[in-house]
Each structure stands twice: as structure tokens, then as C-alpha cells.
Amino acid sequence: MTATASDLVTAADIESAARALNGVAVRTPLLPAPFLGEGVWLKPEMLQRGGAFKLRGAYNFLSRLEPRVRARGVVAPSSGNHAQAVALAAKLLGAPAIVVMPTTVTAAKRAGAERLGARVELAGTTTADRMERALEIVQEQGATLVPPYDDPLIIAGQGTVGLEIVQDLPEVATVLVPVGGGGLSAGVSAAVKLHRPRVRVIGVEPAGAPKLSRARTAGIPVRLDRTSSIADGLLAVEIGHLTFAHLQRFIDDVVLVDDAAMRRAMRVLLDRAKLVAEPSGAITVAAMMEGNVNAVAPTVLVLSGGNIEWEGLSTTMG
Questions:
Q1: Could you give phi then psi for residue 31, rounded to 5 degrees?
Q2: Mean pLDDT, to the nearest integer, of 180-190?
Q3: pTM, rounded to two decimals
Q4: Among residues 310, 303, 179, which one has the least CA distance to residue 233?
Q5: Which residues are catalytic?
Q6: Residue 74: which residues within 8 A CB-CB, separation 6 or more?
Q7: For tag attachment on the chain, is the N or C end more exposed, with fewer CB atoms within 10 Å?
Q8: What is the predicted pLDDT for the residue at 108?
Q9: Which one, of 163, 117, 131, 218, lies nearest residue 14 by Cα?
Q10: Which three-class secondary structure string do you get for 33-91?
Q11: pLDDT class of 127 with cuts at 50, 70, 90
Q12: Is 119:83 a contact under the CB 8 Å cutoff?
């Protein structure tokens, strides 16, 4: 599948998503982070309902379904945060939800989805495993698949993070955003560039999961043989085709960060900002601390989430 310019979300799409999310999603603040440098700000999506940015896209998607379709239920393949977001959106809209998670899912992310009323099924360890089982459920039950990232409504919903950034800090010059399957980075980069074309947008991905870096080199999405990182939310083996089309147009650069740097960033966020970030959420801070980004202030670092329990936090931090 090849996405074209006509498939990209527009500023109007993102603004429509913002209206749909008004009163539902938290408008997370921009917090100053002088310990990371002059003019550095944090966009802490761990303060979002569900503990991560994912509610934005999930609710935007579910809210557009016809009520009779939504009543048949929704299915979400997810490593964790998307599952919790779909579970929450479904609960808010009165729809049954099934989430398909990996057998390696963290206790915090599974428990979060269950607390929100979703039925959890476990399937393998890869994105493909989860998607295969989710599609089986769609066929069996007539439910609707909620894509984790490669969908215009999902991208537009995640783009509200970027819209809030340019509204709350009009003079922003650089934005750093995590890259997994690409929903957040596609949406944020589109929102920022469509409103402030001169802002530099930099994607940050784990060194052990360089799906966007490889795709940019090849000019097309490339399926990785394997991924490995403590950033479990960023381990897609291939960037989405639609998200890649957005990133090709709107993102300026992508940098890689190793696990050790993410651990240091998690500790700094806890010690200095009093924020609990999962590794995926801390990756932009890690990139800033490592000095491998060319960032002009004011700079905003998107912290994508904080769904990590005490045991996982202590184990990850060593």
C-alpha cells in the first residue's frame, strides 16, 4: 500500500479531532525543564487519562463510528498503551472492547486494560501475532478493528498533542517526539508543520528498533527482522505506510537512543521533574541529554506516557 499526498491528514482534521476530544482528553501542560537546558519544555502525556497519549487517537476513532457499529464492539491489537486507550474510549462511549496484547505485556499495562473493562487476550510477542488474532476476532464477532497507528483518524487524534504545543508555545522552534509505529510522530509533525512550517521536528526511536531510520534510507517502509529495547511501546517492526507518508513530508530528522540513555532519562525525570515515565516516554529526554540532536530553543520534548508499575520501574532502573 502506497499513501499519497491526498491521504495525509489536514489541519482541519486535527482541529476536528481537538473538538471531539474537548472535555474528554486532558490538555496536558507544558512544563519548564531548565535542568535540561535554557528554553526546554516538557509535554507530559503520562498525565493523560489512561497514562499515555493514546486516548486521543482511540477516542477520535471510536467517536466517529456509527452507534450500531460501535455497539458490536471494538478490538485493539496493542503492546499496552493503545489497549488501555481503546478500553477507556470504549467505556466512555458504552462499547464492549477486546484487546489483544503480547504474552510479554507488562503487568501494569494488562491490569490497566482490565480495570477499564476490556477483555484481554494474549497472542505471541510480535505486532503480526497481535494483528492476526485481532482480525480473527473481527471475523468471528463482527467487531471493528481499531488500528494502533496507521489510520487517519488515529493520526489526527494524536496530532492534537502537536496542536496544543503550537497553541500554548507559539514561539516553539524545535519539537522532539518518540517514534514507534508512527501515529504520534506523524500526527505531531503534521500538526506542528501545518501551523508553524519553520519549526524543526525530530523523531526519536530506540537504537534496537530503527524502523523509521531504515525506511528513510530505503525510501519505503522496511520490515525489521527483530527489535529489542526496554522501550516496549516503540518496538513495531515496521513503520506504518500512512504514518511514513506523513513523516516523509513533515519530519526533519530522526535520531537513535540506546537503552542506557533511556534509563538515565527516566531517573532524571523522576528526580528533577517528579514525573514517572516509561522508557518510551523518556526517550526524547534521553536524546536531549545525549546531545545528539540539533535543537534550537524553545524546544518541546513530548513525553509519550508513564504506564510502568513499581516493580517494572525498579527493574528497569536497576
A1: -110, 130
A2: 97
A3: 0.95
A4: 179
A5: 54, 304
A6: 62, 65, 86, 90, 95, 96, 97, 98, 143, 144, 145, 146
A7: C
A8: 78
A9: 163
A10: CHHHCCCEEEEEHHHCCCCECCHHHHHHHHHCCCHHHHCCCEEEECCCHHHHHHHHHHH
A11: confident
A12: no
Cell 455497539 locates to 71
Asked whether residue 112 falls in the same domain as residue 127, the answer is yes
Question: Which residues sit opposite 200 in a β-bridge?
Answer: 174
Contact predicate 56/157, CB 8 Å: yes
Q: Which residues contact 308 (CB under 8 A, 6 or more apart)?
A: 106, 108, 276, 277, 278, 279, 316
Number of domains in the chain: 2
Order of strands, edge to edge, in the sheet holding 253-257?
A: 31-32, 40-44, 299-303, 174-178, 200-206, 253-257
Q: List pLDDT tens digits, range 206-252.
A: 999 999 999 999 999 999 999 999 998 899 899 999 999 999 999 99
What CATH number has the domain bearing residue 225? 3.40.50.1100
Among 145, 160, 193, which residue terminates a domain? 145
CA–CA distance, 285 with 282 (Å, rounded to integer): 5
> 145, 171, 198 — which closes off a domain?
145
CA distance 71 to 62: 11
Output the nine-digit C-alpha cell for 220.
519505503
286 is written with which cell numbers? 534521553
Contacts of 31 (CB under 8 A, 6+ apart): 41, 42, 44, 273
Look at the block and give the residue holding cell 494474549: 122
**Phi, psi (degrees; rounded to nearest 5) at 56:** -55, -50
- Can the peptide bond before residue 298 be classed as cis, meaning omega within 30 degrees of 0? yes
Instruction: Return the SS3 of 272.
Output: helix
What's the grid cell of residue 177?
Answer: 517526539
